[in-house]
Amino acid sequence: MIVVNYLASAALFCLGLYTVLTRRNMIKMVMGLSLMESSTYVLFISMAYRSGSTAPVLVDPPKGRSPEQLAAGNVADPVLQNFCLTAIVIGVAVTAVFLSVVVRIAQHRRTLDADRVRELRG
Amino acid sequence: MSRRAGADHEPHHRVAAGALLTAGMAAVLAVGFLRLQRDHAALPPVARYALEVALPRWKLSEPVNEVVYGTRGFDTFGETFLLLAAVISVIVISRPREPRRGYFGEETAGRREQAEVDPHERRDQEEEQARAAEKEEAGEPDDAVGGAAGLRRPETPDAEPVGSPAPERAHAMSVVIRTAIRTAAPVLAVTGLYLVAWGYSPGGGFPGGAVMLGVALLVYAGFGRKRIAGVIRPGLLEGIEMAGAALIIGAETLGLLLKGSFSANWLPLAPVGTIRSGGVAQLFSVGELIEVGTGLMIAVFAVLGMTHDWTPDEDGDSDGEDNQGPDQSGGSRR
C-alpha cells in the first residue's frame, strides 16, 4: 500500500505549508520549510519502491537473480533515490542560510515575530 | 482557533487564508499523488539505463552512486556549488565586524573594551582589585581578563570534578558521555571515510561529509570548543573547502580535456570491488566529502557562533520598542 506513503507525504507538505503561512515566529517558519522538504524525501523514496524489490546493489544480488535481471526490473529505482540525496543537500543549504538570516534579523530587530519585521523601518 | 497576540502565546497570522490555501494545496496534491505510479510499475527507462551502465561502464556496483557521480554528474556538480554558494552566504551574513580566528569567543574577546570607558587608560593595582571583587560578586567567569577572580574554568572539562554540588556547566558533559564520545567518534570518522573510499559501497561524498560534521559536533558537545578550536577555525576550513571545490572542478575538467566530455573517466579502472574501482567518479566523491564536510561545518559553526551583535537589553525590556532601528540596536556597543 504505497498510496499511504504518498498521502502521508502530502499531509506532511500541507502541515509545513500551513506552518509557513500562519505562524509569525520565524524559527517555526524555517521548521515548516524543513517539514515541506522532508515530505519530498518521503515522496521520492516511496516512488522508488517496487513491490518485492531489492536494493539497487549489483554485486552479490539476491539468490537466483543476476545483475541483468535486476536491470530488467524488480529493484528500487536508483534515480529517485539519487533525487532524494540531492533534495537533502539542497534542503540543508537552504535551512542553513535561512537560519543565519533569522539570527541576524533577531539581532537587529530584537524580535522573532515576522509581523514586527515586515515593515522596513529605518 | 482563537487569535491571541502577545509574547506568551503563539502568534498566528491570517489563519483563515492559510487554512484555505493549505486545503487547496492538499486537494491538488491528493489528486496528483493518487495518479502517481504504484509499486507494480515498470522501472522508467532512465533507471534501467543507470542499472545497465553502472557495472560495465563505470565499474560501480552501486547504481545510486553511479547516478550521482556518473549519469547525473553534471547535476551533482551544480548541486555541490549550490551548497558552496549557501556556505558563502552564511559566511557573509554571519561575519562579524572584526576579523576572527575562531567561530566562538568574540563575545569574551571584546569584553574588557566594552566594560571600560577608556580601554587605553592604565589600570593601577587598586582598580584591578576592585574590578576582580566586582566580577566575583557578579559571579562571572573571568575568561577575558584572566585576573585572580574565582570561578575559573578548568583547562579541560576532564579536569572538572565530577559530582560537584554546583550545577554542571553546559560545556562539560558527564564522564559517561565523554567516554562514549571518545569511543564513538573515531568509529564514526572511519565509517565516514569508508563510505567514500570504497566505490562499490553505498554512500559517497554527501553522507561521508555529513558524518564528518557529526563527529565534529559530537566532540564539540562533549568537550567544549577548546578541544576543536585548533581544527574548526574559519581560515583553515575555508581553505580546505576551496581545495575540495578545486579538486572537483579539476577532475571534471580533465575529463573534458583528455576524453572530450565533462566528467568523463580518465583514470585507469581497477576491478570491481577494489578501492579504486570507481575511477573519476570516486575522485569526484572524495572532492564532495571534503567540500560537503567542511561546508556543513562552516555553516553550522558560523550559525552557532553568531553572538557578536547582541547588545544587552536595557532594563530587560525591548518589546514594543518601535523606534529602535539597526543603528541603535546593532551598531552601538555598550
UniProtKB/TrEMBL annotation, chain A:
Q: Would you say which domain of life the source belongs to?
A: Bacteria
Q: Which GO terms describe its cellular component?
A: plasma membrane
InterPro entries (UniProt xref): CPA3_antiporter_subunitC, NUOK/Mnh_C1-like
Which residues are in coiled coils?
A: none
TM regions (residue ranges): 6-21, 79-103
Q: Where does it live in the cell? A: Cell membrane
Q: How does it sit in the membrane?
A: Multi-pass membrane protein
Keyword Membrane appears in the UniProt entry: yes
Keyword annotations for this protein? Cell membrane, Membrane, Transmembrane, Transmembrane helix, Ubiquinone
Keyword Membrane appears in the UniProt entry: yes
Q: What is its main location?
A: membrane
User: What family does this chain come from, according to its entry?
Assistant: Belongs to the CPA3 antiporters (TC 2.A.63) subunit C family.
Q: In its UniProt entry, what is this protein called? A: NADH-ubiquinone oxidoreductase chain 4L
What is the species of this protein?
Catenulispora acidiphila (strain DSM 44928 / JCM 14897 / NBRC 102108 / NRRL B-24433 / ID139908)
UniProtKB/TrEMBL annotation, chain B:
Q: What is its main location?
A: membrane
Q: Where is the composition biased (Basic and acidic residues)?
A: 102-138
Q: How does it sit in the membrane?
A: Multi-pass membrane protein
Signal peptide annotation:
none
Q: Where is the composition biased (Acidic residues)?
A: 312-324
Q: Where in the cell is it found?
A: Cell membrane
Listed under GO cellular component are:
plasma membrane
Task: Tell me the protein family, please.
Answer: Belongs to the CPA3 antiporters (TC 2.A.63) subunit B family.
Q: What is the lineage of its organism?
A: Bacteria, Bacillati, Actinomycetota, Actinomycetes, Catenulisporales
Going by the UniProt record, its keywords in alphabetical order are:
Cell membrane, Membrane, Transmembrane, Transmembrane helix
User: According to the UniProt entry, which residue ranges have a biased composition of type Polar residues?
Assistant: 325-334
Q: Where is this region: Disordered?
A: 102-167, 311-334
Q: Which residues cross the membrane?
A: 12-34, 76-94, 179-200, 206-223, 278-304
Q: What is this protein called?
A: Na+/H+ antiporter MnhB subunit-related protein domain-containing protein
Q: What are the residue boundaries of the Na+/H+ antiporter MnhB subunit-related protein domain, all occurrences included?
A: 176-297
- The organism named in the record is Catenulispora acidiphila (strain DSM 44928 / JCM 14897 / NBRC 102108 / NRRL B-24433 / ID139908)
Q: Out of the domains of life, which is the source?
A: Bacteria
